[in-house]
Amino acid sequence: MGFDDEAEQEDLAEGAERVRDLLGRLAQAFDLDVRVTVAERDGEIFGEFAGEDVGPLIGHRGQVLDAIQHLAYRMAFRGGRDRGRVLVDAGGYRERRAVALRAMAERAAQDAVRSGRRVALEPMSPLERRVVHEHLKERVDVETYSEGEEPARRLIVAPLVE
Fold first, then answer.
1. Rounded to an integer, what distance in angstroms lies between the CA atom of residue 125 and that of residue 32?
2. 3-class SS at 151?
3. SS3 annotation, 103-147
4. pTM
5. Which of 51, 60, 126, 140 has the largest CB neighbor count within 10 A?
6. Contact residues for 124 (Cβ-Cβ < 8 A; gap 6+)
7. Ordered structural domains, the chain, with CATH
C-alpha cells in the first residue's frame, strides 16, 4: 500500500468516525432507542440506524434520511474533496424503497410501450432517479431521462420507436 492509499484510508477512517458521531448525536437528539452502526468498505462509508423507532429518521418519502445522508457526506469529506460515497439507511428503508421504485419503473415502461407515449414519474431525489435509470437501462424498448428542476425533477420513461 502506497502513501496515497494509506492517506486515503486514514481520511476514510476519520470520515467514518465523524459520521458515527453525527448519527449518534442525531439519535440522541431525536430521543430514539436505536442502534447506530457505521462501516467502511471499498472507499465508501455505510451508516445504519436500527431499531423499532426509526420512522422519524426516515421522514416522508425518505426526506429526513436524505438530509441526514447529505450532512453525513459533508462531515465525512469536509474540505470539499470528493473521496467516496456515504450511504445512510434506517431500518432497511433504502432497499424497501428501491424495490418499490423498480416496480414503479416496470409499470411505467409497460405503460409507455403499450400507449406509445412517455410516462412522467413523480418527483424523486437524485438517488431514487438513479435506481430507476439503472433498472431500466437494459431495456431496449424504452429510454429514461430527467426533466425539471429540483426538488420537482421528474424521471421520464419514453418508448423507443424502431
1. 26
2. coil
3. HHHHHHHHHHHHHCCCEECCCCCHHHHHHHHHHHCCCCCEEEEEE
4. 0.82
5. 51
6. 101, 132, 153, 154, 155
7. 3-91 (3.30.300.20), 96-159 (3.30.1370.50)
Asked whether the beta carbons of 84 and 43 are under 8 A apart, the reply is: yes
Task: Return the closest-CA partner of residue 76 out of 40, 49, 42, 48.
Answer: 40
Q: For 70-80, how does the pLDDT look when each residue is reduced to its tens digit (9 = 90+)?
A: 999 999 987 65
Give yes or no for a cis peptide into 151 (omega within 30° of 0).
yes
CA distance 60 to 138: 30
pLDDT over 60 (residue 3): no
Dihedrals φ, ψ of 62, to 5°? Answer: 80, 15
Per residue in 59-71, pLDDT (tens digit) is 988 999 999 999 9
Task: Report whether 30 contacts 38 (CB < 8 A).
Answer: no
